[in-house]
Amino acid sequence: MAAEPKPGFFLTFEGLDGSGKTTQIKRLTAWLAAQEIAHITTRQPGGTATGDRIRTLLLDSKSAGLAPRTELAMMFADRAQAIQEVIAPALAAGQIVICDRFTDSTEAYQGGGRNLGSEIVLQLHQLLCENLQPDLTILLLPDLSASLARARRRNTRETAANGTDESRFEREKDEFFRRVYNKYREIAAREPERVVTIEGDLNVDQVHTQVIKAVAERLGPLEKWHAPFKTTPA
Questions:
Q1: Does residue 134 lie within any of the structural domains?
Q2: Do the domain assignments include residue 138?
Q3: How far apart are alpha carbons 79 and 82 in whole angstroms?
Q4: CB-count burial class (<10 Å; 0-12, 13-18, 19+) for 67
Q5: Domain limits at 180?
Q6: Does residue 137 sit in helix, strand or coil?
Q7: What was the pLDDT predicted at 97?
Q8: Res 230: pLDDT
Q9: What are 119-169's pLDDT values in tens digits?
Q10: Taking 90 as the threshold, does the pLDDT of residue 73 lie above it?
């Protein structure tokens, strides 16, 4: 009789674009691989064939006319598909799942930035996502102005280099991002057991050190996460 699979571990990264999430996820996955710890990575919006199509619509600046509630519904359509297709099966198999953004992003951007409030976001999460909660969330909150400047420069470079356009949110006014930033702080204060906030004028190595410390503490003995899974990128 086969042994029951051990429960997985669900880790999410949050923060404004330009906060350094992509860099820290890459460095964390390299550290996990060096420890021979099985893991998969994914992202939202995206991470599935359906989600990638939704992502294109959500982030393309030509979608400027999206109503806030339409945007909210699309975010949850993407998330429900990702949970069904990627996240839930991996967790059931005992894997570590690292996700670039989850419902905290929706609460921050649509609940805060779009002024829809937290209640509707949390209700939809419970209804459509069966209230799946990360085991740990790393929230990166460097200086707001610096984050926005980095994100806008990056999107300009990527558009020039390969023609992709994911700059719809970066075209919002600074007041929008201040509301997003404040909502992230509100989430962190509400859920201190889950959310580890890393903020301040830190370099990449300093942030990475704090990320590894938080992850290692929550994972416990690392040998229990060794498994014959192939690590796969998003």
A1: yes
A2: yes
A3: 5
A4: exposed
A5: 9-225
A6: strand
A7: 98
A8: 47
A9: 999 999 999 999 999 999 999 999 888 888 887 777 666 655 665 666 688
A10: yes
Give the pair of three-digit tokens for residue 112.
């805060």
State the average pLDDT for the chain: 89
Handedness of CA 71, 133, 83, 181 (dihedral sign): positive
**Paired tokens of 86:** 């990627």
C-beta separation of 46 from 234 below 8 A: yes
Q: Where are the beta strands (DSSP E) in the chain?
A: 9-14, 39-43, 96-100, 136-141, 195-199
Assess if residue 230 is contained within a domain: no
187 within a domain of the structure (yes/no): yes
Measured CA to CA, the distance from residue 8 to residue 42 in angstroms comes to: 15
pTM above 0.85, yes or no: yes
Amino acid at the residue 220: G
- Structural domain count of the chain: 1
CATH number, domain with residue 78: 3.40.50.300
Predicted local confidence at residue 165, as pLDDT: 64
Supply 144's token pair. Answer: 């707001």
- The span from the first CA to the last CA of the chain, in angstroms, equals 33
Encoded tokens for 192: 């201190």
Pairing state of beta strands 39-43 and 9-14?
unpaired
